[in-house]
């Protein structure tokens, strides 16, 4: 990852994005070019947390994705 993009991430997710001109609720990520509506969640994909499912050891980059996995794959268990 280029150093200037790491610096943007360190300053906050607001500097990593620019608004999509045709839709004020969407943002374009300067790091990967992906168009997203939730900047906070997308920023976490660039700074993965590497959370493991306690039951099957599948790895997730965000806690909310792991919770959804637990709900659907392991019968609603929670962490």
Automatic annotation (TrEMBL):
Keyword hit for Membrane: no
Organism superkingdom: Eukaryota
Organism taxonomic ancestry: Eukaryota, Metazoa, Ecdysozoa, Arthropoda, Hexapoda
Organism: Zootermopsis nevadensis
Gene3D superfamilies for this protein: Classic Zinc Finger
Start and end residues of each C2H2-type domain: 51-79
Protein's name in the database: Sex determination protein fruitless
Keyword Zinc-finger: yes
InterPro entries reported in the protein's UniProt record: Znf_C2H2_sf, Znf_C2H2_type
